[in-house]
Design goal:
Length: about 425
Amino acid sequence: MTDLAGTGTRYIDSYYGRTVKAPAARPAMTQDVDCDICVVGGGMAGLATALGLAERGKRVVVLEARKVGWGASGRNGGFVSAGYSLGIDDIEARIGRKDADDLFRLTLDALALIKARIERYGIDAGPMRDGIMKASWYRNADGLKIYAEKMRDRFGRALEFKSREEMRELYQTTRYHEGLLDSGAFQFHSLNFTNGIADACVSHGAMIYEDSPVIRMNLAGEKKRVHTATGSVTANQVVICCSGYIGKLHPKLARATLPVGTYVVLTEPLGDRLQGAIRAPYGTSDSRIANDYYRVLPDTRLLWGGRVSSNLSPRNLEQKMIGDILHIYPQLAGIRAEIAWPGTMGYSVHKMPQIGQLQPGVWYNQGYGGHGMCATTAGGEVVAKAIAEGDETYKLFAPFGLDFAGGPLGPLIAQCAYWGFQIQDRWQAWRSN
Ligand SMILES: Cc1cc2nc3c(=O)[nH]c(=O)nc-3n(C[C@H](O)[C@H](O)[C@H](O)COP(=O)(O)OP(=O)(O)OC[C@H]3O[C@@H](n4cnc5c(N)ncnc54)[C@H](O)[C@@H]3O)c2cc1C
């Protein structure tokens, strides 16, 4: 556990927790304060909202139950790319071409905004590297080329097609066929980025309280009151951004949230052995529905993510994750894990973020699932503009509502769906070979 602030909650033991730059000491809420907007949840959804509001001159208070970035935002793969958990074709099938394009463009803008904020606020989110490769698990050259053309024509986005031969140069595995390289996407240290965004909020006058779980909210009336065990915030507006950790705080939002466990492992430095397996400098994810994703750190350690489960403390996690690596790179047999850790993603059943207003002055911003590092900045801007400027872009998300996510059975259903995806992936791989 890493407790650099010296008190209170610690980050879980992970690559990020071990390498977090000493975050500012942030107090717990022990008083009653007044502000324009109270944001509940200090992950990237909450902080992007808070920063968007603070940059627009609003008085903001963020209440975080543990530490900034303690949840998914500070434990993830560190891949930052446009789009949502739901693919563009599925979004279009649901809401039509124009709105699908508008939604996608929000994330392209967010990608640029993330880079601009790193620059503007001097955030050290390194190691940063451009380029994320989607490696096709199936023979699909035509499909990838068509997709790349579509992205170019609709968004001016340059995705570079890689033939099977080029992929074999970059990746010493027989598992992959062709690939698509997105040079506009990048990888970064998600926990240091999240803390940097929190510092940027404070630089605009926002107040951030950690170790301050919200236990009750009085949301009726013009003035809303948000309570922790030892203090409260009175605000004109409240934005709830608790994702998979929402618990019982707000039954309607909790019912629409499917908490899904997933995992990352960090290997020991692989040295020269790495060249015999992975030569690509990019972040890489494969095209299976139940896929793996990974990136190589500058010191040759491999940060590898994948798997989905309702169990957040699976037995032998390190061995299981190493097994996943060897499934693709058997030549790495014998490598050891330094550490493996779990995280909880907050999914909606439709796999799109849930953004909107429950009643006047009460907003929600959640449901980013496994693709949130860029999309949370898009969602944060949308909510900040809605509150600060009366902008109505957030209504693009209206078709993706607060559908029931299965209640206590939700995680089990997600687990079964994942097993189903694995079978589907194997069947498709067999057919394409
Ligand atoms: C292992 C893993 C790997 C991932 N890899 C990637 C990746 O490579 N790229 C990518 O784009 N996405 C990835 N994701 C998804 C991404 O991390 C999430 O979509 C994103 O971080 C969601 O941000 P959030 O703010 O909604 O949720 P969180 O970061 O989980 O934040 C929610 C916060 O709310 C707080 N909270 C909850 N209840 C209360 C309360 N009552 N009072 C106060 N605070 C409260 C929690 O403590 C928490 O800090 C990954 C996720 C995981 C778990």
